[in-house]
Amino acid sequence: MAIAKSDGTPLEYVRYSSYGEPTVYPVADIDMNGKVDAADNTEWAEVYGGNGTTTAYTADLDFDGKVDSDDDDLFSESYAANSGLSGKGRLSSPGVGNRIGYAGYQWDPASRLYDVRHRWYFPEIGRWGRRDPLGYADGNSLYEYVRAAVILDSDPSGLIGHDGIEFVNPPTWTPGLKKRVEDSIWRIERRARNLLAQIKALKGTLSSCVLKALEAQLAMAETALSCLGNSEQGSGYGELHFTQRDIGGDEATTLRKRYWLPRIKDFLDSECSNVYYVITLDTSENGNWSGRSDDALDTSIMHELTHVCEGSGANKDDTKDLDDPHLVDDLLTTDISSWTELNWKIQQAQRECGEFKRKPAAPRNPG
Q1: pLDDT value for 357
Q2: Are residues 260 and 211 part of one domain?
Q3: What single DSSP character describes residue 188?
Q4: Are the beta carbons of 116 and 126 closer than 8 angstroms?
Q5: Is 36 exposed, middle or buried (0-12, 13-18, 19+ CB in 10 A)?
Q6: Contact between residue 236 and residue 228 where contact means Cβ atoms under 8 Å apart
Q7: Which helix (H) or strand (E) is 211 found in, with range?
Q8: Of 98, 126, 145, which closes a domain?
Q9: How far apart, in whole angstroms, are the C-alpha atoms of residue 138 and residue 128?
């Protein structure tokens, strides 16, 4: 990340460890070793040449396309302010004083901690400084940061958790089994958001004619993925109940739609707040879910959640629509660019638009 003046002239660069510990690199840190020292002064003299005639790209500190006295002035100013200082554990250099850092958190230079509204975050150890205000809503560890999935997620408030998940018949659920289910949903949500970004990028490569032909199908896929990836806004799929029992091993999971006993007001107003969904995980000898790999478990749960996102849990087998759960669950391990069903529909649309000559191969039968 770079911090620059209003005219775009860079002042410093910041790199973070996986858990957000900063190291600042002022522009005078020519060798980018995290410390401004005599070696940088020597290297600057070599790349700048002292007369502004060099074309070495490393000397164009202000990125204006030419090496001149402005670059030398920028180096001299930065060198004077940072000489002898190490950048490790510092978010910003003297004279710049930036306090907005990792994931948008406020940095406190005295304590070297991040202020995240509801909690302090310790980047050196990747842990919160106090227990989760939500309790165990986000897993068994009350201090763990985003379930150790720092490449995939952030927690802008210090309060992100999984509301709306119930485990039926608690004695059958050990903390480890609960965490497996919660982690699976966490991975599915992050994957869904990544896939939405891929669809957005793909749409930018298609002609207006093809986009118009695919408008309804792409909207179906985006709606399903938006629902799957929306838990941080209060869950895109409402309340989920997880139970586990022997269902014979034919399916890893099953889904049922259930209703709370409706209150009179709910009934009269035709409200849907009393709807919840039960996902049953198989414990049979042949299909025991707890022995399945993470990918297999994620695929099964993603399939059921896609049914939930349809609003009724209805089975859409054989529709070949892009929100069909039997097609969407392929996306757990397949990127949008390699999604057979979508590519087939794109090729169909391109043929209709006169952009594709070869007959597309038929997609596989869902289910």
Answers
A1: 62
A2: yes
A3: H
A4: no
A5: buried
A6: yes
A7: helix 208-228
A8: 98
A9: 13
Q: For residue 358, give both structure tokens.
A: 């070869």
Count of structural domains, the chain: 3
Is the model's pLDDT at 32 over the cut of 80? Answer: yes
Q: What's the predicted TM-score (pTM) here?
A: 0.52
Which residue in the block uniquely carries the two structure tokens 């399939």?
303
Question: Phi, psi (5° rounding) for residue 214?
Answer: -100, 5
Residue 238 within a domain: yes
The tens digit of pLDDT for each residue in 103-117 reads: 888 899 889 999 987
9 with 74: CB under 8 angstroms?
Answer: yes
Residue 197: count other Cβ atoms within 10 Å of its Cβ. Answer: 11
Residues 92 and 113 in one domain: no
Q: Are 63 and 196 within one domain?
A: no
348 alpha carbon, distance to own chain's centre: 32
Q: Give me the domain span that covers residue 53.
A: 2-98
Under 8 Å between Cβ of 275 and 238: yes
For the stretch 177-232, pLDDT in tens is: 888 888 888 888 888 889 999 999 999 999 999 999 999 989 888 888 888 876 44
pLDDT of residue 321: 80
| Closest-CA residue to 73 (of 11, 158, 165, 4) | 11
Q: Please tell me whether residues 110 and 74 are part of one structural domain.
A: no
Any domain includes 213: yes
- 121's CB contacts (< 8 A; 6+ apart) are 20, 105, 113, 114, 127, 128, 129, 145, 158
Least confident of 63-67, 83-87, 193-197: 63-67
Same domain, 118 and 248: no
Give the pairing type, strands 165-167 and 240-245.
parallel
* 8-state DSSP, 297: H
Average pLDDT of the segment spanning 6-33: 88
